[in-house]
Design goal:
Elements: H1 2-16, E1 22-25, E2 33-41, E3 44-54, E4 57-59, E5 67-76, E6 79-86, E7 91-100, E8 103-110, E9 115-123
Antiparallel strand pairs: 1-2, 1-9, 2-3, 3-4, 3-5, 5-6, 6-7, 7-8, 8-9
């Protein structure tokens, strides 16, 4: 009976995980890209830079450990809203995310959504 209870608790915990959680590879921006770990931050999701790469390979960027995806709130249907930080210009934008299988599209906008930029990330794990 105790084993069954532990198994059910494990399944319930796995079911509660958001499908965006895990590690994602960004698209290159200004010649560099990163691996970003999406994790819960309260009832929202945040993405922290865990590895950085450029044309020479992996390198020690001062951005490692910084939060790139900020307080993304699930909206349902694989949609999220929050903020995104762009390291290349050190600006924070109004953000959206959309999950489709192993692809995560992020969009950052300014001027009330008139000027937007987007990237599609690929799931690593």
């Amino acid at each position: 009976m105790r084993l069954l209870a532990m198994a059910l608790a494990l399944v319930a915990g796995a079911a509660a995980a958001d499908p965006v959680e895990g590690t994602w590879k960004t698209q290159p921006d200004e010649g560099a890209y990163a691996h970003v770990r999406m994790v819960p931050c309260g009832d929202k999701l945040c993405g922290v830079i865990v590895r950085t790469f450029n044309a020479s390979g992996e390198y020690e960027s001062p951005n490692k450990g910084k939060t790139l995806v900020i307080n993304m709130a699930p909206q349902g249907g694989g949609q999220y809203r929050g903020k995104v930080w762009r390291p290349s210009n050190n600006k924070v934008y109004t953000g959206k995310m959309a999950l489709s299988g192993n692809a995560l599209t992020l969009q950052g906008c300014v001027a009330g959504g008139l000027l937007c930029s987007s990237q599609t990330w690929s799931r690593l794990n």
